[in-house]
Amino acid sequence: MEGTDSGGSREPGGRGRYIYCVVEGEHEDSLGNVGVDGNEVFTISGGGLSAVVHTCPAFPYDTADREMVESWVVSHDSVVQMASEKYGAVIPMGFDTIVMEKGGGDAAHNVREWLCEDKEALESKMDRVRGKSEYGVQVFWDPELEGTKIARESDKLLELTRKIESGSEGAAYMYRQKLEKELKDSLENKATMYFNRFYDAINGCVDDIRIERTKKAGETPMLANFTCLGTPEQSGRLGEELEKIESMDGFTVKYTGPWPAYSFVTGG
Amino acid sequence: MEPIRGTQVTLVDLLDRVLEKGLVIQADLIVSVAGIPLIGVNLRAAIAGMETMVKYGLMRDWDEAIRAREGGRKQRQAPALEPAEEMMASMLGSKHCARGIYNTWRPGRIFLTDERLILYQKAFEEVVFNSHIEQIEALALAGDENTLGVDTEEVRIILRSGELVRIRAESARELIENIKSVAADMGHFLSGEVPDACLPRESSFIVPGEEILCESKMWHLARPQGSPGLMEQLWRPGNLYMTSGRLTWVSSFDSRKCLEVESERIMGVTVEQRCPSRLSGEQMVLDVVFENGSGKEVASFAGTDEKVRQWRGVLETVSGGEQPETPARELESCPACGKRDYTERLLGRGCPSCGWMSPRAASREAGPQEA
What we know:
- The structure holds 2 protein chains of 2 kinds.
- By secondary structure, chain A is of the alpha+beta class.
- Chain A has 7 helices and 10 strands.
- Chain A has 2 domains: about 10-130, no CATH class; about 135-265, no CATH class.
- In chain A, helix 4 (about 145-155) packs across helix 6 (about 170-205) and helix 5 packs antiparallel against helix 6 (about 170-205).
- In chain A, about 40% of the residues are buried.
- Chain B is an alpha+beta fold.
- Chain B has 4 domains: about 10-70, no CATH class; about 85-200, Pleckstrin-homology domain (PH domain)/Phosphotyrosine-binding domain (PTB) (PH-domain like); about 210-325, Pleckstrin-homology domain (PH domain)/Phosphotyrosine-binding domain (PTB) (PH-domain like, Roll); about 330-370, no CATH class.
- Chain B contains 6 helices and 18 strands.
- In chain B, strands 6-5-4-3-9-8-7 form a 7-stranded antiparallel sheet, with helices on one face. Chain B has a 7-stranded antiparallel sheet with strand order 13-12-11-10-16-15-14, covered by helices on one side.
- The radius of gyration of chain B is 28 Å and the shape is elongated.
- Classes of the chains: A alpha+beta, B alpha+beta.
């Protein structure tokens, strides 16, 4: 099937256009049946740009089936990656971005119009991400190990420990409370110190960095969660910095990517 | 340190990005309700549970990955074999996985050992299919149309459990010969006949002996009871089946039988051009009127003009060509007894079941009151 989109069909099955990403240049291509749910992916162009799409019903893909979600998301991302390989700079969309018919125009027409009207904003986003990819950096640490180190090295804590051991029971209880609070404060300070150190080190390697929410991790807690935007060369330097962190006692780094720049194109 | 992607460990990172990030287009152009872009409601639920699950395993997997790597993650190219197991053949292939309308062929590499048949997906280090040769009862070659309409050879396997497995392979014939020879070596007999009754259908609810007269992909209008949610009028995709005994519609999202009406209860059918929902334009809609035990009910379907016309023909025959009275658009429940009936009748003449009347109707009946 040719890449030209002749407009929405009469079936409810065809009123929407599922958008994967926007690329530069006006193309009329078909990428084949590589899309979400095996749909044929093709391009719709306008304003010197092209949207990579597939035809779908005018409502979102939805399921409670985990595996199905995974499969759809993987398909979505692989289409974006494919488009990136084929066309260069790419602005990725999130899942379920479906343009529908509205205001007298069918979905394909609306996609074209959107590309033309938003041309400037889109091109500026394109410039921002050209030649770069997104990388995820998560640093995990072992607070227990850190706590032990602090206890050994801090004079204040050593002093409190001595007082607990040598004092009366009542006094011991009070000193134990103090010790715990002191330890907690020290640990928090340590955490902040590490975080800032890692942030600076990573920030120095890449074009842009975002601080993400740390998630409740499994066995070891997450200390920092960053998303970075950088060139392949920058990613190499970043890797070197991360090796240094990884080599620290009790620290583990999860370095993922390269991803299309999902996090750096958000916003209207 | 090299960045990684495309493994089970990074799947959660990918999900985070694709489901939460990406460029947002202005709300009035995209599928949304009240300006809020709609993401599948169930999607979030599906991944919420999974996130926790993956995270707890995360560090174990990660630890392994980190220790095992050497300047880059090496994905396992092939599945792990038993100590004495020998690899016999390997080729690209895929296995059919059915989930209602969303059928997929999961791709990977087929490995045949001297003991098992495996389909392995390198990208996620996942074993898609794994069966001991002895578990295979029957094996046959079949032709099928793939999504591009091209004939593809397919290997159909019946396992001892009764399960039907469909596999496409680079060379289906070669694979079958190889499996047969492995089976022969282990003294295991394979039948070359895969019975027709095992032919894959989403319609697993079909009773043996029941004949399917007509079947097509049709959209069904689900009117959720109770308080209207985000989508009071929700069209869902699925398959409509007319068999000798009943009319059934199965949802593609969850393969549930959402509608089932015995043929005798079908009273009639009309076709109308209308705008079924806010999200669509004018559509040919098929309204099937049937008895639901306490009155009449209408089920609406939509599809291509051609299909709608075809179904009208089928259903008119089934219902004995009787033309029903024009089905009312609105069906309501009587506030007193809950009986379902047309709004007009409930409000106009009262409930035929319990005699409830709306205040207005009651005062009309009673005649002009004294001031």
